[in-house]
């Protein structure tokens, strides 16, 4: 090495650049590298220090400069080769899209720095059309046929690299191994049978009634209700109970639980950094002391402890059956409780996030729309008149109520752009384009729901398009708020029952309107896409019906 450094610079630096090109063409061009990111980071840092020390001990006149020039030459070779390849030789080179997006996902990180991926994609659709290259190995395709192609019964697509974001945490929704997923899904399905659902219903009713009482209490005091707080308090309390057998007690305390706060703050990272899962790996392994990583790990530790307590309570007299009951029961029956502990921890966090961060924004937006459409609110109240809202079956028959929920999920999807899939090795035809293997496919619900080709007056909230005006849905194939196929939402029935009940309970009990000068500007303006939708504040007035 010392001898190498004595080579004339005219030879040394071009040689380093050539090494950069070679490492790209011989190594990095093949396969996935995001999981190796921490190792590469350490290797690169160690080599840089090593070069510096060699230069220093070989009496180089300026060891810092020598190291800098050598590493820069290598990087120049490496990144020039990557850029030229991705722009002019890559399998996706003929797809339209921003040139910088084709070179690096950092382009996307920058675009999403305010958590507005749903708007970034919408802007690209206007500029480039419905098939866009949004990354070196990524296509965003806005077409009603895509959900079925990538998730339908015949699909051979798998989950894309994004799902490795949280490794080493493992959970049903993040596992990329199809066989492993299917095995775990069978266990989950036991927690969502009709019998299991009956156990959950009464607790949903109980929490919803507490929510209504709190709202009534505040409205009696003449205070506004921030829907974006209260619906989250409600859903997190419900899901906390389903995951750990105990809620976060936010409806009681009327404030955010610190663990939920940490969780939501950590989820905020998914806004800008979803595009670069390798960076999350570097952060987890190289900088675990960083505040945001500490937040996440702190929250995971808290969940792990709660799961420990939940396991200790399992089978005790009076213990109620929650989602975790079924997961623990399965591990016990197989004698694998200890081995499955990581799964149980990860799956409990999944119950909390997947069950809360989706229902809450849908409820917030449903009430926003019901407030903007007071006549429809009144009509819905009329349809609910005389219906036993505690009877799940009866409630499901109220078409307009289901229409309200579906229309809200179309226009304000809880998962606006997420749900990335990867094409199988041999490639796949998607929406008329041949897509090679190993490519990430994004099928954004936000843009699909706003497509005039699929919906008449697409930007308007018209629940009747799902009931009496079916002609307003020109092509409903793209409407998959809960996804479909093997990775579809396991909690769909629970979610629909829960949303129907909460809306019915509150609409029959209160007249809901804007509070003061509120018109929903913050709700929509501060909406962030961080895999799930995170809305801004919305202050509403809930007037108890029959009172002035
Ligand atoms: C409005 C409510 C909800 C919506 C819109 C929704 C939507 C979705 C979507 C789009 C997916 C697919 C995600 C992906 O492809 O990565 C999904 C998966 C999932 N959801 Fe939901 N969800 C809701 C409520 C719930 C509830 C209440 C639970 C119950 C705990 C739940 C649990 C899950 C789980 C575990 C998965 C992963 C399934 C798998 O990979 O096999 N969700 N959900």
TrEMBL record:
Cofactor(s) needed by this chain: heme
Cellular location(s): Membrane
Membrane is among the record's keywords: yes
Domain of life: Eukaryota
Keywords: Heme, Iron, Membrane, Metal-binding, Monooxygenase, Oxidoreductase, Transmembrane, Transmembrane helix
Keyword Aminoacyl-tRNA synthetase appears in the UniProt entry: no
CDD domains according to UniProt: CYP67-like
InterPro entries: Cyt_P450, Cyt_P450_E_grp-I, Cyt_P450_sf, Cytochrome_P450_monoxygenase
Transmembrane residue ranges: 12-29, 41-58, 64-89, 269-292, 348-371
SUPFAM superfamilies membership: Cytochrome P450 (SSF48264)
Family according to the record: Belongs to the cytochrome P450 family.
Name recorded for this polypeptide: Cytochrome P450 E-class, group I
Native organism taxonomy: Eukaryota, Fungi, Dikarya, Ascomycota, Pezizomycotina
């Amino acid at each position: 090495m010392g001898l190498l450094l004595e080579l004339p610079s005219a030879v040394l630096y071009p040689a380093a650049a050539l090494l950069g090109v070679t490492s790209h063409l011989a190594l990095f061009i093949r396969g996935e590298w995001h999981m190796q990111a921490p190792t590469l980071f350490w290797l690169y840092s160690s080599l840089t220090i090593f070069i510096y020390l060699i230069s220093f001990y070989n009496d180089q006149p300026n060891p810092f400069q020598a190291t800098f020039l050598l590493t820069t030459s290598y990087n120049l070779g490496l990144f020039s080769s990557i850029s030229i390849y991705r722009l002019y030789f890559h399998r996706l080179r003929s797809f339209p899209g921003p040139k910088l997006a084709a070179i690096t996902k950092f382009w996307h990180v920058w675009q999403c720095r305010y958590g507005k991926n749903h708007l970034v994609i919408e802007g690209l659709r206007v500029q480039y059309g419905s098939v866009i290259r949004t990354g070196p190995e990524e296509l965003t395709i806005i077409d009603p046929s895509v959900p079925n192609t990538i998730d339908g019964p015949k699909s051979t697509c798998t989950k894309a690299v994004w799902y490795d974001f949280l490794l080493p945490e493992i959970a049903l929704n993040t596992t990329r191994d199809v066989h492993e997923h299917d095995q775990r899904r069978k266990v989950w399905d036991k927690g969502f049978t009709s019998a299991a659902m009956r156990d959950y219903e009464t607790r949903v009713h109980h929490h919803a009634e507490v929510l209504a009482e709190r709202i009534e209490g505040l409205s009696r005091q003449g205070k506004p209700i921030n829907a974006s707080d209260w619906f989250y308090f409600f859903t997190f309390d419900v899901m906390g109970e389903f995951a750990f057998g105990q809620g976060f007690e936010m409806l009681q305390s009327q404030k955010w639980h610190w663990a939920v706060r940490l969780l939501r703050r950590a989820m905020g990272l998914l806004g800008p950094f979803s595009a670069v899962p390798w960076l999350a790996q570097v952060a987890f392994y190289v900088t675990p002391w960083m505040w945001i990583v500490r937040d996440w790990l702190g929250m995971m530790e808290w969940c792990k402890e709660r799961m420990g307590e939940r396991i200790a309570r399992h089978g005790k007299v009076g213990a109620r059956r929650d989602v975790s009951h079924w997961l623990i029961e399965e591990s016990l029956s197989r004698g694998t409780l200890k081995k499955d502990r990581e799964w149980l921890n990860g799956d409990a966090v999944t119950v909390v996030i997947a069950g809360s961060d989706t229902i809450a924004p849908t409820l917030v937006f449903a009430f926003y729309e019901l407030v903007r459409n007071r006549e429809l609110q009144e009509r819905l109240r009329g349809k609910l008149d005389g219906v036993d809202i505690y009877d799940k079956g009866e409630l499901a028959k109220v078409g307009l109520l289901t229409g309200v929920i579906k229309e809200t999920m179309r226009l304000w999807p809880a998962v606006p752009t997420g749900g990335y899939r990867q094409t199988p090795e041999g490639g796949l035809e998607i929406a008329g384009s041949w897509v090679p293997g190993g490519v990430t496919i994004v099928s954004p619900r936000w843009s699909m729901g706003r497509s005039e080709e699929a919906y008449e007056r697409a930007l308007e909230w018209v629940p009747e398009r799902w009931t009496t005006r079916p002609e307003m849905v020109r092509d409903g194939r793209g409407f998959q708020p809960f996804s479909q196929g093997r990775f579809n939402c396991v909690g769909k029935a629970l979610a629909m029952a829960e949303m129907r009940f909460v809306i019915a309970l509150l609409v029959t009990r209160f007249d809901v309107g804007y509070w003061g000068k509120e018109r929903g500007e913050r709700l929509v303006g501060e909406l962030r896409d961080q895999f799930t939708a995170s809305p801004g504040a919305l202050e509403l007035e809930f007037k108890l019906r029959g009172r002035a």
